[in-house]
Structure formats: structure tokens, C-alpha cells
């Protein structure tokens, strides 16, 4: 019996490496495809010229948050993966499309509504939740993101960024 207990007990290093393997597999199988999909979609929209049209259409709405219309690309990318939205913001900052203040306003929105499509599909649809709650469960993170962007707009203005 004592031999079985010793065989079942894993060392700290074994537990750590097993966790690393699981984390790596999750990132490769779940996170990376969503990031790549978001990036490819946004690049397609930019290269095709559709992003300019989308930016112009959303400019009045997104301007409420003190953002240029092009910032809608960050929010669209964040729908697929938080990291995709953040990397899009970094790319647009490097291109000079967004300022540091714009990125600061967008960051909490990326975190609050990031990976919304994947999360919605994996959690809300798979669990078989009551259909009357589907729309609120989808919209609440978007509302949270909007409130966070408004708050950040004032924080950024107060900080002089």
C-alpha cells in the first residue's frame, strides 16, 4: 500500500511541468487560432479599404470615448481574442494611428469584452442556458467596456495623456 501512495504522489516539478504542458496546449489550440483569426480579419478589412468605411460609420459613436474611428479595429479584434485587440492597439500605436491615451482608453475594453465571441460560444451556447438570457449575457460585457472607456477617457484627460 505504501508503494502505491508513493507512486500516486507527484513531485512539485512534475506538477509544474504538467501544468506548463496543459497551458501550452491551451494556448496553441484555443488562444492562437482566435488571435490569428482576429488579426487576419482586421488586416483584410484594412487592405480592402472596408476598414476606412467602417471607421467613418463608427466615428460618431466611438468619438464619445475620445477615440478616432480607426480604433474600432481594436474593438473588433478584441471580440476574437483579448490579446488580438491589445496587439492591434500596439500595432496602430506604432503606426501612429493611435496615441498612448487612445490605447489607455481601449485597454480595459479589450479586457472586459475580449474573446466575447469565443466565450459566448464556449460557455453560453454549450451550457444550454435559457435563451432569454443570451442577449443580455452577450451585451453586458459590451456595456461594461463602454463604461470603462468613458471612465478611462476622464482618467486620461486628468492625467494629461
SSE topology sketch:
Blueprint (H helix, E strand, L loop, with lengths): L1 H7 L3 H37 L1 H13 L9 H9 L1 H14 L4 H14 L2 H12 L6 H26 L2
Helix pairs in contact: 2-4, 2-5, 4-5, 4-6, 5-6, 6-8, 7-8
In short:
With 161 residues, the chain is mostly helical. The chain has 8 helices and no strands.
- N/C terminus separation: 66 Å
Number of structural units classed as domains? 1
The total of beta strands comes to 0
Question: What's the average pLDDT?
Answer: 83
Q: N-to-C SSE series?
A: HHHHHHHH
For the sheet with most strands, the description reads:
none
Q: What structural class results from the helix and strand content?
A: mainly alpha
Beta strand %: under 5%
Rg, rounded, reads 20 Å
Report the uncertain regions.
Answer: none
Contiguous helical run count: 8
Helix content: over 70%
Give the overall shape, derived from the CA principal axes. globular
Structure description:
The chain is an all-alpha fold and 161 residues long. It has one domain (33-159). The protein has 8 helices and no strands. The protein has helices spanning 2-8, 12-48, 50-62, 72-80, 82-95, 100-113, 116-127, 134-159. Helix 6 (100-113) runs antiparallel to helix 8 (134-159) and helix 7 (116-127) runs antiparallel to helix 8 (134-159). The longest helix is centred in the first third of the chain and has 37 residues, at 12-48. The mean pLDDT is 83.
Amino acid at each position: 500500500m505504501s508503494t502505491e501512495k508513493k507512486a500516486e504522489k507527484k513531485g512539485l516539478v512534475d506538477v509544474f511541468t504538467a501544468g506548463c504542458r496543459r497551458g501550452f496546449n491551451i494556448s496553441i489550440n484555443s488562444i492562437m487560432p482566435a488571435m490569428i483569426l482576429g488579426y487576419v480579419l482586421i488586416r483584410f478589412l484594412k487592405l480592402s479599404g472596408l476598414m476606412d468605411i467602417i471607421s467613418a460609420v463608427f466615428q460618431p459613436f466611438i468619438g464619445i470615448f475620445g477615440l478616432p474611428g480607426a480604433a474600432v479595429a481594436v474593438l473588433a479584434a478584441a471580440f476574437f481574442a483579448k490579446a488580438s485587440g491589445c496587439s492591434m492597439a500596439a500595432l496602430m500605436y506604432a503606426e501612429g494611428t493611435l496615441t498612448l491615451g487612445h490605447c489607455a482608453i481601449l485597454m480595459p475594453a479589450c479586457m472586459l469584452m475580449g474573446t466575447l465571441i469565443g466565450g459566448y460560444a464556449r460557455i453560453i451556447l454549450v451550457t444550454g442556458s435559457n435563451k432569454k438570457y443570451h442577449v443580455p449575457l452577450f451585451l453586458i460585457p459590451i456595456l461594461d467596456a463602454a463604461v470603462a472607456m468613458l471612465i478611462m477617457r476622464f482618467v486620461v484627460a486628468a492625467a494629461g495623456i
